[in-house]
Design a protein that fits this description.
- By secondary structure, the protein is an alpha/beta fold.
- It has a single domain, classed as NAD(P)-binding Rossmann-like Domain (Rossmann fold).
- Helix 3 packs parallel to helix 4.
- The N and C termini lie far apart (36 Å).
Amino acid sequence: MTAAEVRSLANSVVAITGAGGGIGGSTARMILEEGARVVVGDLSSDGLRSLLDQWGPDRVALSVGDVRSADACEELVATAVSAFGRLDSVVANAAVGFYGGILDVPADQLELMVDVNVKGTVWLARAAVRQFRAQGDGGDLVIIGSVAGLMIGGGKEAVYAATKGAQINLGTALDRELRSEGIRTTVIAPAGVNTPFAAADGRFGGGDPAKGPFMQPADIGAAVVYSLRQPRRMRTELWTMWSLAENH
């Protein structure tokens, strides 16, 4: 049997937002294990320093900032170029979610959710594409969305679903815009994942996601790695992921 062709990530440069824990942290570790050099970004350095301590400055660079700021996303990309000479892939993982009805969540929290999930993804995409074009040899943009954005999520998450729908549409449209330049856009849209992010907002009801067959952060990280390792002739535009614990 002929083995499937895969791309090596060794020495490639990947930037990840929201990398201080959860899906972002697991993804960063898995990409590092593939031999890549990684720029990890988050609101503070607290969750990032363990990656730097373990892998060292030859493999890991930190970028502290808020993706709601276009300047912070530009700085993330600039950190990759300064530390490692280039940028090959970005993973737009930073996100905010509040679980509740349309009138249950304060306006400032809704505004935060829209700004982080939508604007933060747009600013990162712009910064990444500018660098990919300067290099002239393509690149990968991976967006961590949600099945909620496909109108098949649960109730009491209308605004969150709207932001995730925006991410999915952004990724799909960017793929059409950029594919001729060798820039691939992938949206990975999981359902419930056992993270503090999901457990804290009531998404699992009274259940304990650690005790059921829910997905784990590493499951999503593995999907990111798989997408990046696809040969350049292939694209995965949208990948939905569900656990055995959920119905849809």
